Every structure is written in C-alpha cells, then in structure tokens.
Amino acid sequence: MKSSRWSNYIAALPRQPYSLLYWTRAELDRYLEASQIRERALERITNVVGTYNDLRLRIFSKHPYLFPEEVFNLETFTWSFGIIFSRLVRLPSMDNRVALVPWADMLNHSCDVETFLDYDKSSQGVVFTTDRQYQLGEQVFISYGRKSNGELLLSYGFVPREGTNPSDSVELSLSIKKSDKCHKEKVEALKKHGLSSSQCFPIRITGWPVELMAYAYLAVSPPSMSRQFEEMAAAASNKSNAKKEIRYPEIEEKALQFLLDTCESSISKYTKFLQGSESMDLDVTSPKQLNRRVFLKQLAVDLCTSERRILFRSQYILRRRLRDIRSGELRALRIFDGVRKLFK
C-alpha cells in the first residue's frame, strides 16, 4: 500500500529479475545443457514451486481473507524469492543475520572489490566502507561474495567478463560406472559419507580439490583394493582424518586418465553448444521474443565460454601429469632393461 513505509522501496524493485529462476524449462534445456548450473537452476525452481504449493495447501487456501489469491499466487511468490535470492545480505556483525537493505542492494558487483555491507552498532544502520578512493561521479561497487560465474548467473542474472573473476569455477560431474565389478560396494561406501554414485566437484583455473582426486581413485580402484574403498570415500567427502591428499601410486595413472576422459567429454558438450549457438533462434520473428532469446543466449555463451576455459586448463594439466608419469615409467623400464642386459 502507499501508506507502507516500504512502498517506495518495493516500487523501485525490478518486476522480473534476470536470475535463472525466471528462465523457462525450455530455455534452460536449450541454452545451458552443457553446464551443471542448469541442474542447480532446476532444483531451485522445483523448491520454490514446491514451497508455494505446500503453503497454498496448508495455509493460503484455508484463510483466503488473509491470503487472497490475486496477491498470494505462484507468480508473486516466485518474484519474492527472486528478490530474496538476488538481494539478500548477510550481516557479519549480527551473527550473519540475513536482511534486505533498501537502496544499498542497488550497488553493482565487481570481482575486484573485497568489501561487504555490515551492521554498525553506533549508527544503528547498515554501512558500506569502501576499500579504495572513488572520484566524484564514479560508480561505487560492492562484492556479492566469492562466487563462480555460474552462481552469479543463477542468483543475480549476469556473467562477469571472461577471465575477470578469480573465484570462477566449473562443476565436473564424476560417476561410478554401473559396469564396475565393485559398483555396489563403492556406492555403499559413498553413501556412508553422504555422497552418491554421481557427484559434482568444483574445478578452478588454479586446480581442483583433493576430494575430486579421492573420488577418481575410488572410481578406478580394482576389487583387490576393496579394503581402501572406505578410506577413499571418506577423503572424497572431506570427512577424512588425514590432513593431506591421499595417494595411491599404483592407480594414479588410471585416476588421472579417468579425470581427463570426463573433462574432455564435458569440453565436447560446451564446444557443441558454442558452435551451434550462432545458428540458434534464426526462425524467431517476434521482436520481443527475439530480444529475450538473444539476451539469454548471450548470457549462456559467456558462461559456457568461461567454464570451458577452466576445463581447457585442467585438460592441459592432466595431459602433462600423465605424460610425466608415462615418460618416468619408460625411463624406469629402460634402466631396468639396461641393468638386466648388464647382468646377462
């Protein structure tokens, strides 16, 4: 209502944020098929719709005079969640309490900025202290947190320029093959530690987590290593007592090859989308529909380009490590052969 103290703030909020919450299933399938962020988006949409249906069944339908359907419907409910996902602020000085902060949530994100909003007890308000000098008329930026490009698109509806986000990462999905002779035992070991037979791990331009390597060891380990399944699964879940990365030299080459194959399979999906994106939507004649598709497609192209870049880097590192292992083995065989001939 106009009489509300929040009226001007609510009126200034975007009517349709560009987060993935507002993409249709067809748009997610069309533009983000190569990226794991599509699964995150579908999960979020399912949660929001499920929450609304639950509330409508238990509360809204039983008290229509308090919750009229023209206001409390799925469209406005989705809009409200979109606003929360894109504007919610955590305040460290208030035990990370979450809040909507009028006007301050209009500050744009920069990957180069390290400062955040926080509550100030002396002024009893939310303050923002800059980490640099700004000139008169210059735009002031804030950090939305150390998020990957996919996470920024998921919640905020934008993708930073390629190579400008030091927190960028791509999720690589690893799976235990159903044809594995120890599939049942490996899956049971994973379940004990809260993991499944198909698991995603973040890869950064600087490398990958030790948990990913532990999962790869488990995926390629032979039946003779069944006693180590539990240890590998614990390390993959980060619940191991070990302080450093576990290593199994006897299967390291297989584990690295497994990661390389998975990485290259993912790269091929990105390449297929990026190559085909130019010919997409040429049949659309409606200007409004065309503008939306061009905008969403460009976001998807920017995301897939940045994620593929990280995978290319990982591919290079994996190939190099495999080459070093194999060249080392070849040298060892030559030395052994030389010694054998000498004694012979």
TrEMBL record:
Keywords: Methyltransferase, S-adenosyl-L-methionine, Transferase. InterPro entries: Rubisco_LSMT_subst-bd (IPR015353), Rubisco_LSMT_subst-bd_sf (IPR036464), SET_dom (IPR001214), SET_dom_sf (IPR046341), SETD3_SETD6_MTase (IPR050600). Residues 178-311 form the Rubisco LSMT substrate-binding domain. GO terms for biological process: methylation. The keyword Methyltransferase applies. It holds the Pfam family Rubis-subs-bind. GO terms for molecular function: protein-lysine N-methyltransferase activity. Residues 101-145 form the SET domain. This is SET domain-containing protein.
